Amino acid sequence: KNEVEQSPQNLTAQEGEFITINCSYSVGISALHWLQQHPGGGIVSLFMLSSGKKKHGRLIATINIQEKHSSLHITASHPRDSAVYICAVSRGSGGSNYKLTFGKGTLLTVNP
Amino acid sequence: SQTIHQWPATLVQPVGSPLSLECTVEGTSNPNLYWYRQAAGRGLQLLFYSVGIGQISSEVPQNLSASRPQDRQFILSSKKLLLSDSGFYLCAWSVIHEQFFGPGTRLTVL
What we know:
The structure holds two protein chains of two kinds.
Chain A: E1 4-7, E2 10-14, E3 19-25, E4 31-37, E5 43-49, E6 52-56, E7 59-64, E8 69-74, E9 83-90, E10 100-102, E11 106-111
Chain B: E1 3-7, E2 10-13, E3 19-26, E4 32-38, E5 44-52, E6 55-58, E7 65-70, E8 73-78, E9 87-94, E10 99-101, E11 105-109
Parallel strand pairs in B: 2-11
Antiparallel strand pairs in B: 1-3, 3-8, 4-5, 4-9, 5-6, 7-8, 9-10, 9-11
């Protein structure tokens, strides 16, 4: 079993729909990351959170430490949101433990 | 502001040839540096990380090696490439938890 599990693996939505991507993890963490990978391959960090909720524009990330679960929400989805969304966790503190363990990603396609 | 560079952007190499991928970071000092690989149809996997000059930790046994000759330079190498080395290679840096990724190198081994 992977330490970081994402669902769904693939998601197709119509423009304007509210989207949720889920991430569960099985280890103690110090931070959870949501990343976005566009078709060209480049990766952008969307959120890093260790508790509660963060919002940036139409993106919202939440985390429940007790349940070891996080969600990424996209409101009013748009075709430009089409990308792979990756959940990753980092553990501990100190240089070596900032390394990330990744989920397999969720491929989101938003149709106009 | 901080910037991370990787080159080359794409590379096609024959099996058995050597490899050198370079990553440099600007605008920060003493970063943690990371090499990740994304094989076709698979998730990202950490290959190496470094917390300082000359300090390299390997995550998985493999055909590759890494070096950090300067504070902001991280190099991924191989003496003889295998077909299974094909993939998308990403360099990243962090000071604390948040990581910042380079543009990546797409390597095809034929």
